[in-house]
Amino acid sequence: MNFTPSSRVLIQGITQPLGATYAPLMQAYGTQIVAGVSPGCGGTTHQGIPVFDMVEQALSVVGAVDSTVIFVQPYAALDAALEAIAAGIRQLVLITEGIPPLDMVSLLRKAEVTETLVIGPNSPGLIVPGQLLLGLHPGEFYTPGHVGLISRSGTLTYEIALELTQAGLGQSIGVCIGGDAIVGSSFPQWLQILDEDDSTEVIVLVGEIGGDSEEAAAHYIAEAIDKPVIAYVAGRTAPRGRRMGHAGAIISSQTAEPGTEVGTADSKINAFRRAKIPVADRPWQIPDLVKKTLKLPMRKG
Amino acid sequence: MNFTPSSRVLIQGITQPLGATYAPLMQAYGTQIVAGVSPGCGGTTHQGIPVFDMVEQALSVVGAVDSTVIFVQPYAALDAALEAIAAGIRQLVLITEGIPPLDMVSLLRKAEVTETLVIGPNSPGLIVPGQLLLGLHPGEFYTPGHVGLISRSGTLTYEIALELTQAGLGQSIGVCIGGDAIVGSSFPQWLQILDEDDSTEVIVLVGEIGGDSEEAAAHYIAEAIDKPVIAYVAGRTAPRGRRMGHAGAIISSQTAEPGTEVGTADSKINAFRRAKIPVADRPWQIPDLVKKTLKLPMRKG
Amino acid sequence: MDLLEYQAKELFREMGIPVLPSQRIDRPKDLKGLTIPYPVVLKSQVYIGGRGRVGGVRFVENTIDAVAAAQTIFNLPIMGEYPTVLLAEAKYDVDREFYLAVVLNRSICRPVLLGSQKGGIDVQTALEQMQHVVVDQEFSPFYARRLALKMGLQGALIESVSGMLEKMYRLFVQHDLDLVEINPLGVTATGEVMALDGKITVNDDALARHPALSALIAQSDVNQPGHLSAAPTAMEPDGQVGILCNGAGLMMATMDAVSQAGGKPAVFLNIGGETQWDASPTALRDQLERGLEQMVQTKQVRVLLINLVSGLIPCNEIAAVIAKSLLSRVRKPRSISEISPEALIAQATRFPQLVVRLVGRDRELARSRLESVQVTLIDSLNEAVTQAVKLANAATRNS
Amino acid sequence: MDLLEYQAKELFREMGIPVLPSQRIDRPKDLKGLTIPYPVVLKSQVYIGGRGRVGGVRFVENTIDAVAAAQTIFNLPIMGEYPTVLLAEAKYDVDREFYLAVVLNRSICRPVLLGSQKGGIDVQTALEQMQHVVVDQEFSPFYARRLALKMGLQGALIESVSGMLEKMYRLFVQHDLDLVEINPLGVTATGEVMALDGKITVNDDALARHPALSALIAQSDVNQPGHLSAAPTAMEPDGQVGILCNGAGLMMATMDAVSQAGGKPAVFLNIGGETQWDASPTALRDQLERGLEQMVQTKQVRVLLINLVSGLIPCNEIAAVIAKSLLSRVRKPRSISEISPEALIAQATRFPQLVVRLVGRDRELARSRLESVQVTLIDSLNEAVTQAVKLANAATRNS
Fold first, then answer.
1. Is there a contact between B208 and D280 if contact means CB atoms under 8 Å apart?
2. Could you tell me if D394 and D252 lie in one domain?
3. Which one of D68, D90, D112 terminates a domain?
4. What is d(CA B269, CA B287) in angstroms, rounded to the nearest whole number?
5. Are A156 and C101 an interchain contact pair (Cβ–Cβ within 8 Å)?
6. Cβ of D274 and B154 within 8 Å?
7. Is residue A137 a contact partner of residue A125, using CB atoms and an 8 Å limit?
8. Any bridge partners for residue B94, and if so which?
9. Cα distance from B135 to chain C (closest Cα, Å)?
10. Touching check for B56 and chain C: CB below 8 Å?
């Protein structure tokens, strides 16, 4: 794991709409973007960033990189990720939404044997406030501090980061594991990382309906996490079987995911409560719960 | 590597024609056949050998095995081999001829990451005279001794083993890497094994036209092998571009295997000669060359 | 997205999975051209399960009975859903019924093979005996045999059932499916197997790379549950609040908060997060514009809560889109410039009351832009929700 | 086994690899029904390369010229091979010609992508500039881009050429091929790419699991070089020795020894080693029986050297098959039992002189069995070869 200002970062899909927009924003935030990749655009530059046709070609010129942020089209994402792994990159941030799940299965099989960390897909990536931005997080919502923020959504995470910042609670990291059904890194993985991270004092976990990530996280927190955790779950009122936007935020039928009621907001909230984890009912209650946990003075209300 | 009388051996495809014939022959030679596998035949026995539906099921009953000998139909061989690897077996002998080469490519990718030894396909397997038979070698042609015999063919290997036995030269091992274009274990691999094997004093390498196994072996012997090696190459008179029976024994066109004249008997014989390896012109000259190398008395002739 | 039984069986047939001779029936009179010999089973083609228990499956012996039965089935809603197609299928005598499925399991990020010796309509019994095998590495047929053994099968059934699973898996991978289910798999006394009913769930995200599958689906109603739609999703029939957000998590959190505050969401619309590869300020503006138009056209919406949190596009650009939308609904007199903004808004045709909360860059510019069209920019989500519910309650009282 | 150009292009078309409009011509008059506008290229469909240099490819401007050109091409052997089909194809203006291939490399046990910016008929130049990329792990399109870059391509050509290679690779894997080659790949001034000529080598061992491919091949002559045949293979036109062995290595070693001893092999036949999954003593006996029959029917064979080394079947069973074969060729009088074996053999119709060498179990039983039909069992390969050559030389002197 290397998420510091010294991290050297590659952008795959730097000439795609989203990549072209965010590469300079990441750079402006202080992230060392050493090269971009876009087949057919080798030899050009984008806002001063040299662009190459392939990852391995970029690395042969600019040297090794720590992470790559992938902005390519959904059906090209598996190939881009495998290309990065083949070139030796072991931290991948998959921004792109809409990658077919079976492509993710193939990628994750490969990631496991190569010990590659895959963040996302359908994720705004990761921010270490004041230090490093790998993805879309709006830097102005964040401020350095000691709250580790992990989530499954983009804009809701920004919302909560802003609530924390406005309440005077800075963040050690903001990371989104992704809104799709099949994602790389998991809540337990990040809980473990933040539990060991010196700058994190409290963890805010922002979950949502669908799947059993929150149930697994609750279980893992009870078993293995020493630092305090505050949870929030979105989707109490979401209609069953409807896709809310995230491919992952859907309560599936019984057969597809045996274990009956897993996936509902109630199941997740109950899992957190059973693990004695405070659950915020509304997003704006999170800062107060954090302060209570850290025994900080409450804001007047 | 464990090729001793204590090796525990599984037979996959024990109810197929070839497997049904050879399993008892191997057992009669002293090989510890602990179980057979044949889907749909679980619960039966074949000549006293318990038969199971799956490899993992067999292993759960009879315990771990060292090697499996695979006799299944060509299009079922990749699956059988992957099943064995998944069950933890790391020495595979593929007897079956006619396995599609791209199935072998898939298998060998898997074998490499799991460090699995694959002998064959299209191979009579391996014999350690007087100790162990994993495959088809007719035990009566062999006698224990110090000549390591490695080859690409079946019946020609038996022929040469018999010539050696009749000349009073016993064998430490007889192994055939297989007659197909794509095979698992290679000549260099076996040369290294026999170079380190205490019971082997001299190595007889029986090559044939097609591919560059012999050229690679000649190179490897010059570089890395201390023990004396005698070579023979079959196919000096084989017509170009004709399949001789072995899928591998064909001299291919230039484009398919760049490197122009590689694959002909001349290319192979010249490679051995350049590496100062004595080459027998006829199979029956091999025993004399072995004796000469070992400074043993020659037979009268 | 789910396929109907007859569509699933078309794919089964292509893959060599045995299915009975069958014929699609679009209207009762189609039965006069039936080429399958009687007796025949008529099956309602609906997305909902459990049709058998409520009369959606009928055996018929001749054409007269068949036409009558078809009329009945066409007029029989299954959990509220009317079939637009029936499937006429040959009858088959089975000894036993198994359950088989291949499904993508999101918890472990792997496909899983499922099987039970107790298939058929009693799902609970099937579940109790359900066996599963995780396809952790590249699939190979031994995974299917592993399931067959776990199911307790013996002899020739091991190969016939695992052969079936192998084809189901190939179908699953070739078409990027979320689910392939055969229930029941009919097993005859002689050990022959037959897919008697089938369910396939297509993955929405992968559909665009499967033109043949898209064409198959285009034949049927795409307005089924679970389908990702660009149209607003209806909630409470008596709700008055429309909610428009960007991003699924934010959407759900906002809707939850409205409900918790006592409001009743009427419809919601997620105009999309910012992780589409082709997302851009222009694209987001377009989506917002279309979304506003759709919400405004939804009569039930008396109060429209707009909650947008964006790092991609400055708030003032969003405000400009909202203002433009508001102004476009005004009945246009000859010259707009002659009329004061207040008068314009007053004349707006059936425009819901707006509660706008924006977060991002250039919020103060946005505030002024919105004030120019009589809309107050609200700072916090809490306030915005409170305000929306208050307005909705007032509207209810006034109606 | 190789496909003809028109067959390869059928597969290209199915995979979405761009090819020109073309039409198969079985006889010159087919050109009257040509649907491709002139000018048109007529190409001899032969397995041998280099047809262009010897007049096997002709441009024609109208039907009269086309029919005449077709007649010429049908009567023009390419390295001794006459075409049975021509391909009429649209003309295409290209700026450059590339070489692309996907081939299975046996040394490294992996598929390899090959490419050169210098394609076309000058194979040597293509080879000098040839770039290759090993597909060491599961294929992904980046392997194709890697080759495009190694070839020195830039800009849009990287994607168009790597897209082509991706499709070639999918074809390669889907049909279990040994080789997919496009040479030349035409590249227009605007950067469009087109497969102008194509070669596909099918893998014999995998063919049985590709019924569509088998059907495609069944249309053409399967008696092409490289095809594994059950019939004896011809060697020297003036040879007299037929060689029958079991196993490829033994076959080659025996034939080499015959040549080295001054003999001339006429034909050889390998009845197969013992690694076929369904090999059994019965199967081997049947193959031997058929093989003997074929060899005996080959007029050129004056001496038949049989060298069989078997662990599967005892020598006496082999001897029984040989004896039976020998006896079956005898002109049958009313009752065989009345005649002595010697008399029978003397009457054998055109049966070559037999030199039989067998190794395996029960050799002494085999020896007696063969002696009963006047055949001596020889013990060593050396002796058998010497004996066969001696008899052949004697036969030559006597003829």
1. no
2. yes
3. D90
4. 18
5. no
6. yes
7. yes
8. B70
9. 23
10. yes
D71, exposed or middle or buried, with CB in 10 Å at 0-12, 13-18, 19+?
Answer: middle
Q: ipTM of the assembly?
A: 0.94
Check CB contact under 8 Å for B40 and C158: yes
Domain extent for C59: 21-90
Flag whether residue A40 sits within 8 Å of chain D, measured between CB atoms: yes
Cβ atoms of A47 and A33 within 8 Å: the answer is no
Rounded to whole angstroms, the Cα distance separating A110 from A131 reads: 30
Same domain (yes/no): D83, D112 = no
Q: What is the pLDDT at residue C123?
A: 77
pLDDT for res B174: 98
Distance (Å, whole) CA B89 – CA B111: 11
Query: Which residues in D lie closer than 8 A to residue B232 (C-beta atoms)?
Result: 253
Residue of C140, C149, C156 lying closest to B79 (CB–CB): C140
Which of A16, A136, A248 has its CB closest to that of C274?
Answer: A136
Rounded distance between C-alpha atoms, residue D95 and residue D40, angstroms: 18
Catalytic positions of A: 246
Is residue D388 located within the same domain as residue D265?
Answer: yes
Q: What residues pair up with C307 in beta bridges, in sequence order? A: C245, C357
Residue contact B211–D106, C-beta within 8 A: yes
pLDDT at position D120 over 90: no
Mean per-residue pLDDT of chain C: 90
A43 CB within 8 Å of a chain D CB: yes
CA A269 to chain CA centroid, nearest Å: 21
Do residue C273 and residue C382 come from a single domain?
A: yes
Q: Tell me, what CATH number does D330's domain have?
A: 3.40.50.261
Of D188, D218, D248, the residue at which a domain comes to its end is D218
Q: Which of residues 240-259 of B touch D (CB under 8 A)?
A: 241-250, 254-258
Joined together, the tokens standing for residue D375 give 């055949």
In the block, tokens 């602990």 appear at B34
Global pTM value: 0.93
Tens-digit pLDDT profile for residues D20-75: 999 999 999 999 999 999 999 999 999 888 888 889 999 999 999 999 999 999 99
Instruction: Answer whether residue C389 is part of any domain.
Output: yes
Task: Show residues of chain C in contact with A213, CB under 8 Å.
Answer: 107
Helix axes B213-224, B265-274, angle to 10 degrees: 0
Does C362 reach chain A within 8 Å, measured CB to CB?
no
In chain B, residues with a C-beta closer than 8 Å to the C-beta of D178 are 101, 256
Please state the length of chain C: 399
Structure tokens at C193: 């197997």
Backbone φ, ψ for residue D201 (5° rounding): -110, 120
> Is B195 in CB contact (< 8 Å) with chain C?
no
Residues D239 and D372 occupy one common structural domain: yes
Q: Tell me which residue of D246, D169, D249, D172 sits closest to D206, measured CA to CA.
A: D172
Count other Cβ atoms within 10 Å, centred on residue C338.
8
Classify the C-alpha dihedral B108-B111-B116-B122 as positive or negative: negative
B77 touches chain C (CB under 8 A): no
> pLDDT at position B15, please?
97
Asked whether residue C197 falls in the same domain as residue C301, the answer is no
Residues of B in contact with C147 (CB under 8 A): none
Judged by DSSP in three states, A260 sits in: coil
Here the CATH number for the domain that contains residue D150 is 3.30.470.20
Q: In this complex, is the C-beta atom of A130 within 8 Å of any C-beta atom belonging to chain D?
A: no
Query: Which whole number is the average pLDDT over A77-85?
Result: 98
Tell me what pLDDT residue D250 has: 97
Closest residue by Cα to residue B147 from B123, B119, B175, B124: B175
pLDDT in tens, C210-236: 999 999 888 765 445 444 457 888 898
Give the C-alpha distances (Å, rounded to integers) separating C196 from B143, C20, C112, D309: 61, 7, 21, 54
Question: Catalytic site residue B219?
Answer: no
Same domain as C115, residue C73:
no
Answer yes or no: do C112 and C85 share one domain: no
